[in-house]
Amino acid sequence: MVQLRGALRRRIKRARLRGDAVECPCCGRKWAEFAPDRGRGNALCPGCGSHERHRAQWLYLDRVLDLGIEPVRLLHFAPEYALRGLIEQRRAVDYVTADLDPAGVDVAADITALPFGDGEFDAIVCSHVLEHVDDDRAAMAELARVLGPGGWLVVMVPLDLGREATHEDPSITAPADREREYLQHDHVRLYSLDIMERLAGAGLTVTPQRMDERFPAARYGLIPSDVIFHCAHASS
């Protein structure tokens, strides 16, 4: 009965949002607007559940990087539901999923000590993970280690574009305090654009990418704070 009521509510919500003013690049469906979620308006696709960052990522992977045109071995750490199925459909992609939580992924892995060989992957997607990791520099070093020559790493994190420096304080441990300071109770920092300096410290070149500047932001429900950091080995 509970599942039936949930399905009915979703159908009613979708009916209310019928239209073609916005379009989800993840599922291709069109709506009058995206649904509100987590205090943000125009955020959630009622069809596939993608948020702004998922739509930005898929626009980048699909339309900028042409993912799947060439064979590629790709590591996806903490794979998002909205993206996993899309990547799995690309037959040229040798797709490996990993997470600290072993449920539903190929490999159980600590991102600060990855169980993979040097240069094992041609591509890596790591989105909204590093803000949860105490030693994010160790995680960045590991991502750089398992990334092969000529490969690419896509990183996304929650950003405060108004900050000059990343906000972190080891003394902030209470969930309520972390939510107030870092936006979520299980975050350990709130990044600024100086994350690029940390990634560079792992031997990576970093190029920030803004999908809201490449594609119609209103059409696809994109926001400026969803910056994609495209990384490659400095020697590439």
Report on this model:
By secondary structure, this protein is of the alpha/beta class. The chain folds into 2 domains: 1-50, no CATH class; 51-233, 3-Layer(aba) Sandwich (Rossmann fold), CATH 3.40.50. The chain contains 8 helices and 11 strands. The chain has a 7-stranded mixed β-sheet with strand order 7-6-5-8-9-11-10, with helices on both faces.
Features:
236 residues, 8 helices, two-stranded antiparallel ribbon, Rossmann fold, 2 domains, alpha/beta
CATH homologous superfamily of the largest domain - what is it? Vaccinia Virus protein VP39
Biggest sheet details = 7 strands, mixed
Q: Which structural class best describes the helix and strand composition?
A: alpha/beta
| Unreliable parts | none
Which CATH top level class of the largest domain fits? Alpha Beta
Biggest sheet, spatial arrangement of strands? 7-6-5-8-9-11-10
Spell out the helices and strands N to C. Answer: HEEEEHEHEEEHEHHEHHE
**Number of separate helices:** 8
Summarize the structure.
This protein is α/β, with parallel strands linked by helices and 236 residues long. Helices cover 30% and strands 25% of the residues. It is globular and about 50 Å long.
How do the helices and strands line up, and which of them pair or pack?
Elements (H helix, E strand, L loop, with lengths): L1 H15 L5 E2 L6 E2 L3 E3 L2 E5 L7 H13 L7 E6 L3 H8 L4 E7 L7 E2 L12 E7 L8 H11 E10 L18 H8 L12 H7 L2 E7 H4 L2 H4 L6 E7 L3
Parallel strand pairs: 5-6, 5-8, 6-7, 8-9
Antiparallel strand pairs: 1-2, 3-4, 9-11, 10-11
